[in-house]
Each structure stands twice: as C-alpha cells, then as structure tokens.
Amino acid sequence: MAKKLYLCLAFFCIFWLVAVPSITGDNIAHAAVHETDPFVYISTDVTNQQGQNCTETFRVNINTPKQTITQIKCPLGTIIATMLVHRSEAIAMHKNFVALPKTQNEEQQTLQHIKQLSTRPLLSSTAIHPAVACGNQGTASLTWSGDLFSTVEYYKSLDCTHVTIEQASIRASEGGGGSYWAYDLYAGNQYNVPGCPFVTNGGYYSHGVNQVAATGYYYENWMKEYFYCSVFLEYNNIGPIN
To answer: Which of 26, 36, 95, 160 could tie 42 with a disulfide, CB 3.0–4.6 Å?
Structure first.
C-alpha cells in the first residue's frame, strides 16, 4: 500500500514539473503573440461581389405631379466590408490597416480611419439620379448583401442648401440579415441607432433622425457583429442625398 502511495506521489511530482510549466509556457507564448501581432482592421470594396442584388432606388418629389422613381445598379464604393486580421497578415496582403479602439472614446476616430482605408472612387461621378426639387421630399433606398433593404427619408429645404434627415430604416428578408445596426453617418454627423438592434429574419427596424445637414453627402449605415455590437462588419453609401 505504501509502495503504491509512493508511486502515485512520484507520478504527480513528475507531472507537475513537466506538464504544468509546459502549459503555462504555451499560454504565455500565446499571449505574447497577441501582444506582438495584434488584431487590426482592414477594409475592402465588396460592391461587385453583390452582383445584380445591389441596387439603389430614388424617389423624388414625393406626392407631387413631378414625382419620379429611378433605379440604378450600385456603383463601386457602395458596400465596404471590414475584416479583423492579425497585423502580420495585413502586412503580407499589402493592406493598410487600423488598430482596434482601446476605449469607447477612440471608436469615432477608428471609424473615420476605416473609411479612409477604402480606395473607393468618387461615387458622385457615377451615381446619377434626379435631385429633389427645393421644398420637396425624397427617399433613397439600397438593396444590399442580398437580404437587407435600407431606406433614408428626407426633406429638402426651400433654398435647396439643406436637407432634414427624417428617418432611416432597414428591413431584413426572411431568413436573412444577421448583424447589428450600430449607427448612421451623414455629412460628418453620427446618428446612433437606439439599442443597436440585431437585424435578422424578416425584421423591420427604424429610428427617427430629424436632423438638418447640408445636401450632397452619402448616407451610411454602419453594421457590427460579434458579442452584441462590438466589431465593425461593413457599411454602405446611399445617395448622394440631393
């Protein structure tokens, strides 16, 4: 009995001396990799990957004799996707990258840097559609990612210099969606979406914006994923709103 007890004790000591340092060392090495090769954001224009499923629809001068509806194929730069990769991967792919924000205060700066990463052309040079007349209402809608339908409603001022962004909405097709709607951007302004809703499976989501801004900018829906609205996924450019 004593002999068996001695053997068990000896085995435990050997395991502690050999296995535990190995496990601890692996964890330290793993942590070191993340410190020296952290995750970063890269972005890429994925508009062409949408194929015929990406279209924009513009309704101008709503409820007037001059109301028109125009539909165009999404120009390059309409859908920008972001990816989380290790910094070494971004360098190997010759991609410019942005570090993850460490605090909530850094998120706005990260967001702007992500926008600068994309090499999109000037969308206004290819996105041609009728402008809303002064003192009239319009909507700009986008069908994207195969199963998301975004719309922004606005009113153009009597002097044609400003628009009032009234409401923005996103609808997911049945079985579609699967990302969080974090906020919208327009003319340098950020409009947070209350509750950061999870857009999925036939759901309809909207928020009242009711803010005045200059005409001629693109309206952007910013989507996130993972662990409740924590990681940038993609954003779109709807418009221009004019």
So the answer is: 95
In the sheet that 137-144 helps form, which strands lie side by side, from edge to edge? 68-73, 55-60, 137-144, 148-156, 162-172, 204-214
Residue ranges in the chain modelled with pLDDT below 50: 1-33, 119-126
Q: Do residues 31 and 23 make contact, with C-beta atoms less than 8 angstroms apart?
A: no
241 lies in some domain: no
- Three-state secondary structure of the chain: CHHHHHHHHHHHHHHHHHHHHHHHHHHHHHHHHHHHCCEEEEEEECHHHHHHHCEEEEEECCCCCCCEEEEEECCCCCEEEEEEEEHHHHHHCCCCCEECCCCHHHHHHHHHHHHHHCCCCCHHHCCCCCCCCCCCEEEEEEEECCCEEEEEEEEECCCCCEEEEEEEEEEECCCCEEEEEEEEEECCEEEECCCCCEEECCCEEEEEEEEEEECCCCEEEEEEECCCCCEEEEEECECCCC
**Residues spanned by the domain of 184:** 39-236
The whole-angstrom separation of Cα 161 and Cα 135 is: 10
Examine the domain organization and report whether 166 and 221 are in the same domain: yes
For residue range 137-180, list pLDDT tens digits in order: 999 999 988 789 999 999 999 999 999 999 999 999 988 888 99
pLDDT at position 52, please? 64
Extract the tokens encoding 102.
């460490």
Provide the domain count of the chain.
Answer: 2
